[in-house]
Amino acid sequence: MPEGHTLFRLAREQTTQFAGRPVHVTSPQGRFTAGAALVDGRVLDGVRSYGKHLFARFGGDTVHVHLGLYGAFTGGTGTPPPARGALRMRWVADGPDGAGVWTDLRGPTACEVLTRPEVDAILARLGPDPLRPRADAGRALRRIAASRTAVGALLMDQTVLAGVGNVYRAELLFRHGISPFRPGRAVDEALWARMWADLVTLMRAGVRLGRIVTTRPEDRSRRRGVPTREDAHYVYRRTGEPCRICGTDVRTEMMVGRNLYWCPVCQPS
DNA sequence: TAGAAATGTTTAG
DNA sequence: TAAACCTTTCTAT
After folding, report:
1. Extents of the domains making up chain A
2. Across all strands, nucleotide nearest A165 (CA–C1')
3. At A132, is the secondary structure helix, strand, or coil?
4. Which residue of A53, A161, A242, A250 sits 20 to 30 Å from the alpha carbon of A116, by its own alpha carbon?
5. pTM of the predicted model as reported, rounded to 2 decimal places
6. Which of A2, A80, A108, A227 is catalytic?
7. What CA–CA distance (Å, rounded) separates A164 from A160?
């Protein structure tokens, strides 16, 4: 489930559980053995996310993780379970209260040890991350407003905007009544200011809830309580289902290799 | 048991 | 633009 909110949350959790203590780092699967040996037993300074990237600092060395489409961390307290399956990286430490803590990483696109300059090179190619307090929304606008490319494609481009994935893209465009096919240059400053502010709100809510919920309570079938999975989105993965606002069938199409979802009436071209 | 799909990125052409 | 890659989970046979 990795869009930016997932990584932000992971960074925070891992910092709370592991920072300031030596971490036993292994790679039971074997594909990260050399990297694990570099940082094994060292004190973790902290974990930070930027966009969909995760950076765990051990002095001058940083473990960089990108979950890709289906990478995932699991974890818990006490003694870790026997390693099974393709377990790329495991952390074990004495947690803040003295009890053991552990976390397991499976299926990431990237899991590697980087030097400071290598980390900086990754950061340099990322656009502003709406979850970072001092992110510069204007930097994204300059890219968008100068481009003939569809805004639906620009929002997914990590050099334009860091941390937005397929769900936030579809939902943000719906909430603002914008066709995914509108050229970036047809997005003006006022519209972008509204979209950015909304993204900040939505992604912070994602951090808080641990999942993406974009529907307003009045647009859900059940207005009270925790929204069901069926009720959490306006258009994402709702192909052929009626739009929550106008009842038109939600449409889907491939855009830059990814499934795009939108309502042709609420988001007219 | 096999196959498809999944909130992503990189590389090759 | 297409294909490759990483792994799990759900669905169909």
Report:
1. 4-124, 137-262
2. B7
3. coil
4. A161
5. 0.95
6. A2
7. 10
Predicted local confidence at residue A146, as pLDDT: 93
Q: For chain A, what is the mean pLDDT?
A: 93
Catalytic annotation on A52? yes
- Does domain A137-262 bear CATH number 1.10.8.50? yes
Q: Is the CB of A69 under 7 A from strand C?
A: yes
Q: Are A180 and A267 in contact (CB under 8 A)?
A: yes
Residue range A4-124, CATH number: 3.20.190.10
Report whether pLDDT(A1) > 70: no
Catalytic residue of the set A194, A216, A223, A258: A258
Write out pLDDT tens, residues A12-36: 999 999 999 999 999 998 899 999 9
Question: Cα separation of A171 and A198, whole Å?
Answer: 10
Cα–Cα distance, A149 to A68 (Å, whole number): 24
Q: What is the mean pLDDT of residues A222-251?
A: 90
Which nucleotide's C1' atom has the smallest distance to the CA of A256? C1
Amino acid (one-letter) located at A37? A
Angstrom distance, A66 CA to B10 C1' = 12
Which CA-bearing residue is nearest the C1' of C5?
A: A109
Whether the pLDDT of residue A114 is over 70: the answer is yes
A3 is catalytic: yes
H-helix or E-strand spanning residue A171: helix A166-175
A2 is catalytic: yes
